Amino acid sequence: MYTLACLMFVCLMSIIGYLRKVVAIGECGLDYDRLQFCPADVQKKYFEKQFELAHLMKLPMFLHMREAAADFCDILDRNKNRFYGGVAHSFTGSAEDCDKLLSFSNLYIGKYTCY
User: Fold this and answer.
1) What range defines the domain where residue 78 resides?
2) In a domain, 93, yes or no
3) Which of 65, 71, 74, 102 is deepest in the core (most CB within 10 A)?
4) Strands (E), 36-82
5) pLDDT by position in tens, the chain (length 115)
6) Is 73 contained in some domain?
């Protein structure tokens, strides 16, 4: 899985430069409700790299955060100088987590609902 994720990331960085209609980088983020598909340490590593890609392309990000508020906020905080803005959807955090996310002036959140 690691090799495939790395290869996909490198390919994506190569391809995006040729696309002129790309308006955001995504879906990026952390989903700890789906750890059976990808371990948390791998998700965190590539979430950091996704900020690198968005910064390189000067594009906002479409973000995903489910059951991962602490790590998500820590990584976003470390990368705030490389973050052009975006929307975090699938939000499942607490009111305190929501306040922390909204403290980033260029980030909007969507509330996760499942019917």
Assistant:
1) 27-111
2) yes
3) 65
4) 61-66
5) 445 566 666 666 666 666 667 788 888 999 998 899 899 999 999 999 999 989 988 999 999 888 898 999 999 999 999 898 998 887 777 888 888 888 888 888 876 555 4
6) yes
